[in-house]
Structure formats: C-alpha cells, structure tokens
C-alpha cells in the first residue's frame, strides 16, 4: 500500500489518540471522556499495529517518528494508570467493594440466613444440653476447647509460646480457607456454598452454646467478640459470592453456562477479594488483641465499635459514587 493511502486511512485514529493523550492526563474527566478512556486500549493497539506496518514497509522517517511518539505516549499513560495500585486499592476498599455488597444484598441475605439460622438453632441446643456438642465434633476436640477456655491465663500462655506473628499467619490461613470453601462451593450449582455456610454455622453455634456455661464463658466470649464482626461478615460475603456463581449455573438464561459464569465472575470475585481483606483484619485482631489481659467490659466495648464499623462501612461507604 502506498504511504499516502495508508496515511489517509489511518490518520483519523492517530488524531483521535493524540487528542485523547492531550486531554485526559491529570484532568477531572467528564462522562464523555470516561467513555473515550475505555476505548483507549483498543485504539492504542491499532496505532501500535500501524507503527509496525510503517516500519515493515519502510515508510518515511517522519511518519515512523510520529507513530513512535504516539506509541510511547500511549504506553506511558496506560501503564502509568495501571501502576497506580495504591490508589486503585483505596478506591476498591472505599467505593467498589461496599457498593458491590449493597448491589448483591439478596445473595448476602440468603447467605446470612443459611449461616445464622443453623448457628442459632444448634447453639440453643448445645446450651440446653451439655452432651449435644458431641454429636457435632469428636470428644477430643471438645476437651481441648474446654481446657483452653477454662481460664484466661491458659489462653495468654498458649499465645505467648507460639508468638502473635505466628498465630496471625495461622489465622489468615484458617479464615481464608473457610471463606474460599464458601465461595468455591458455588461452582456446584450453589449447593456447595449452602453446605459450607450451614456446616460452619452449625459448628460455630454448637461450640458457642457449649462454652457459654461456666467456667468457660468468662474466657470464651471476651476472647471471640473482638474479631467476630469482621470474620463472620466476611464468611457470609464469601458465601454470597458463591451463590452468585451458583445462580448463573442454574439459570444461565440465553447464554451457555460457561459464558454466564464468565459474565458474573468479576462481580463475585469483588465480593471475595473484599471478604479476604476483612478476614486478614479479623486475623490481625485475633492475633494481637483478643488474648490481651484486658477487662471483659473493654473487649465488649471494642466489639460493639467493630460491629458499628462493619455495618456502617458496608451500608454507607461509597454512596454517591459508581462502583
């Protein structure tokens, strides 16, 4: 192809990219500019292709130089924006994640029901009957829990031997493992998520009901209330993400199930990523706060503040912004 014809056909997109590069960096974007910004990666790839053709066909150095400059400017803008990880993380935490939670409130409510109802029912059963917990877990595990929470000093001594940092790593692995089960179970048409939510609710309720009797209650409840708001909320959100996947597999609509899953996966993953951050925070509280020798009143007050923080964050953060 002659250079003049090549320039006539491709020049409009070069001019468009030049205009975008002049207008977009460092400015507050209008709705039109935001829409154009979404088109920039595809436009940039086309210009890169034009640049390659210009070199291959040995067009004039003036044309090659112009395209070379465009490619460099486009690369700088696109990959500089991608490199702003801290800003993206802050926006995700402050806007994207809580907005996604509110948009998925039906799945969150269903997940909460399958987690909370078994916990309450079995917790009541374990509280009324001291032997009920043995139907949920082996006697050896029950004895270990009773020994641990028989007095607060045992908790503090156990924490001290392994170190707070080591326990922090253990809690992260344990908590995220539970969250991942509740999420990945959604691939079994949502039934896996419902199972893991109910199972963990049953175990949690049974243990809590059994340890609500003296002498365990005085150590158990002050220990668990601090990190519970973040941990339990995160498990419910991971279960909600799994249910989102499951519903698309059950009701894919006009799409193939694989395509329906691809369509919903980014939204579900946002819930899981936010839930994982909450689980990390819960692990930090459990490792560095829960075993501190503080009064029960202080720990209950701290728990109340955390519940207010969780509910306020998920219900109010990011309002007025696009997720």
Automatic annotation (TrEMBL):
Record-annotated membrane-spanning stretches: 107-127, 176-197, 204-224, 230-250, 271-291, 297-316
InterPro entries: SpoIIM-like
Disulfide bond is among the record's keywords: no
Species the sequence originates in: Desulfobulbus oralis
Signal peptide stretch: none
Protein name: Stage II sporulation protein M
Alphabetized UniProt keyword annotations: Membrane, Transmembrane, Transmembrane helix
